[in-house]
Amino acid sequence: MFLIGEGLVEISIDYKDNAGHKKEKKLFRLGFPEYFGEMALLLNEKRSATVRALMNTVVYEISQDELKRTLKSNPKAFSNLAKQAVEKREKNKLTRTEMEKLKEKKTAPSKGLLSNFKKFFK
Q1: Helix, coil or strand: residue 22
Q2: What pLDDT sits at residue 33?
Q3: What is the pLDDT of residues 41-80, one digit of tens each?
Q4: Hey, is 105 helix, strand or coil?
Q5: CA neighbor of 25 nearest in space, from 103, 96, 104
Q6: How many CB atoms lie within 10 A of CB 53?
Q7: What's the confidence (pLDDT) of residue 105?
Q8: Given this model, what pLDDT does residue 93 score?
Q9: Fewer CB atoms inside 10 A, N or C side of the chain?
Q10: Residue 6's pLDDT band (boundaries 50, 70, 90)?
Q11: What are phi and psi of 43, to 5 degrees?
Q12: What gap in Å lies between CA 11 and CA 16, rounded to an integer?
């Protein structure tokens, strides 16, 4: 888990469009004193998003052992953090599903100005 000490990061998810092309959806930005990476630790899952620094950023790593020790002595904090992690996971899944369902809009090629004038005067 990482705590942002200063700077700004962007969180995004990858998905595939209907044509099977890999795409990226930017979700949100985080800065001090926000955190990321808790979902993998608390839910014992692989990462679900990509984090990219948008400027010089300082993050502090909180190991799984340290997090467990801290949360063991504060069950209410553990409950809140776990609830937020589950909500983030569900929101990420929903966003990924929505993005994968989007269909690329196909526009008909223009027949040109002259063709449009002909149609108008018919």
Answers
A1: strand
A2: 93
A3: 888 888 878 999 999 999 999 998 998 888 888 989 888 8
A4: coil
A5: 96
A6: 13
A7: 47
A8: 81
A9: C
A10: very high
A11: -100, 0
A12: 17
Q: Which residue has the tokens 């705590």?
A: 3
Per-residue pLDDT at 55: 97
Instruction: Report DSSP letters for 30-83, one per residue.
Output: EETT-EE-HHHHHHT----SEEEESSS-EEEE--HHHHHHHHHT-HHHHHHHHH
Q: Which residues contact 65 (CB under 8 A, 6 or more apart)?
A: none
Write down the pLDDT at residue 91.
84
Query: Distance between CA 57 and CA 39 in Å, rounded?
Result: 21
Q: What is the reported pTM? A: 0.68
Tokens of 91: 């929101």
Which residues make Cβ contacts (< 8 Å) with residue 38, sequence separation at least 6? 1, 67, 81, 84, 85
CB-neighbour burial class of residue 49 (10 A; exposed 0-12, middle 13-18, buried 19+): buried
- Residue 4, burial from CB neighbour count under 10 angstroms (0-12, 13-18, 19+): buried
The three state secondary structure string of 3-18 is EEEECEEEEEEEEECC
Q: Which helix (H) or strand (E) holds 85?
A: helix 75-101
